[in-house]
Amino acid sequence: MPFINIQGLTKQYGSSIYALHDVSLTVERGEWVAVMGPSGSGKSTLLNIVGCLDSPTQGEIIIDGQRLSQLSKADLARFRAEKVGFIFQQFHLVPYLTAIENVMLAQYFHSLAEEKEAAEALRRVGLGNRLHHLPSQLSGGEQQRVCVARALINQPNLILADEPTGNLDEVNEALVMGLLADLHREGHTILMVTHDPEIGRMAERRVNLHHGRLTEVFAAPIQEDLLVDNLLQAVWRAEEAAGERFLPADRLPEFVTNRATFMLMAQEGSICLEDGMISLTPSGQQRADQLIRRHRLAERFFYETFGLDEDRLHENALRVEPLWTAPVTDKICTFLNHPRTCPHGDPIPIGECCLKRP
Amino acid sequence: MPISNLKPRNPRSIFWRLCLRSLQVKRPQAALGIGSLMVGAAVCSLLLNLYGGVQRKMTESFSAFGANIILTSREVAAHSSDLPTVMPEPSPQRLEALRREHPSILTVPVLYVIMRLNSPAADSRLPEGKEVVAVGTTLEGISAMNPNWHFQTLNQRPEPRDCAVGIHLAEAMQFHPGDSLQLQMLETGSGHDQSAQETFRIATIVSTGASEDDQVFVPLAALQQMAGLQGKVSAMELRVPGDVKAIESAVRQLAKLFPEMDARPVRQIVYSEAKVLGTVSRLMLALTILILTIIALCVASTMTAIVLERRKDIAVMKALGASNRAVMELFVSEGVALGLIGGLAGFFLGALFAREIALRLFDVALAPSWWVFPVVCLSTIILAVVATLFPVRVVRRIQPAVVLKGA
What we know:
The complex is a heterodimer. By secondary structure, chain A is of the alpha/beta class.
């Protein structure tokens, strides 16, 4: 049985305005789903209805076996307190309560406010030294992390995040998304609303809302892999240019625009991100070597075989190299008699075939 | 702060922190609410403290007008006379039962006899004789019974034959303290020897502003002897301290103790006091109700503003799982806090004003009545809660999705 089962959900205002129109969706337990779409597509409305902050005009929602339409207002409040954790774009912290008190507030409406537990939740999100600060004394990222701690304090089954990084800069965005990724790994079910494809890419599945109607989008694995490959090559080239293995991440232009993907790569183990420094792990290095080797061999191929000008080599290499598997690459390398540099003078990483040549 | 240093607190401590912190943040509105409630509490405290003091003062003032109960014979006078028929003097033993219930009761027997007052022979310009009402009583008794009478007393050791003369009579007869006067019975054909004269020393000139200014007050026993009315009195004057109910209770008791006699309250004194006090208390009650109504409206307005300004906080709390009841409880608690602070401050302020007004207007040194304290505090809290109940109903209508979207 799915954890969330949304059937024919419609939210209508007046006689002709549909925020949601016959939306049906299932979310499995422990799944991370990103709800994406342009502004006004009904994403937040969907989230609010799933979180029992709003009620549908038609349709049914069943969460963890509980039919929400059967619950009274008081029961819905109880359900929210026990089962749901909200992370808002605008944080919505109570301004005159400190960080720890904001977290304790969520505890209070659930059961008992326990200061130690609240402090531990804040420590977990990296705010152990900000317990008694007011929201006005915290940065945007810190406030959102308080929000995350508040959302988690009652150990909800479901986390609803409405544009969690919408008001954050890149650094804090990466921090918050890292927290969500940790929560996902721990088995929490996450339903996240975002308009940012970069953020949406971190989810397991992405669904699209357009004018209140649902279209489901699966991220093409090829496109994901292509992006990761490009980023690995970018790191490899940067390391080659600098002559160093460890580089400041912020100096890499691709890092600034693909932070979430880099974080994903770090989690998957192809790069190492620590203290603002980026480097390739052995597996990342191996993969990057293969990619660079393939590209530069392709350039060499076009240069020697077809006599193309140097300024056209890169473009043509990009066209053909995705088709070259590893054995094909080795054969081309043998055909070209294991060249050491590309036409631009850059070294070509050595492959197995180069080692085996007599 | 290391987490290990954090001690477990009262589970509701976050509740009180939220209450007090929100009042701190909304200081102007909270101050307005407290100020309004303080005014209401001060008015209540003022009026309640003042009423008690005024009541005491008025009772004292009315008591200066003399007796408030008269005990007379039920028999109608055999001949036309303004003087009541004589009756046996009420025995002290029978009065004991009444004294047990009213220890401060004052009783003064009086005997009215018309006698001839002979002028001193020395001065021929004065009238030779004059019929006067001689009142047999005790001089100490009438002095205690009528504190508003003015007594010009001879500064010598009292004597058994001392008497007091009304000021009009003294001026007409040119009597002075220390002079002598003679009283003689009028001829009545009763067979009693009326030729004897008795001489008395004028110890006191008394000024009353009433008919007593034309009377002579002599020792009761002497007059009884002269008139042949030993053991008889015309009436017993009584002053019972307390309000109308106490006086009426004493009248009923006297009726039981002395069925042969007629006990009546002096209506002009008793019921005038009751009327005045009743009017004053009704006026105070009406004023209090009016003022408290205005205060309640003011507090309701303030709390409405507080609730509306905190719509976003309410929406967040609901999003976190707070029920309507939990949120309303929070605001009602804030109302209670305002009521408590306003009540405490208002009680002392009102008591202060009551003391000043009592001193200046009624010449009464008034100490705060401490029973007023819980009444004022509780009333103020109740007022604050009632005034809060209407605005907090707004909480029910706040929809988190709408408010948080617009925030």
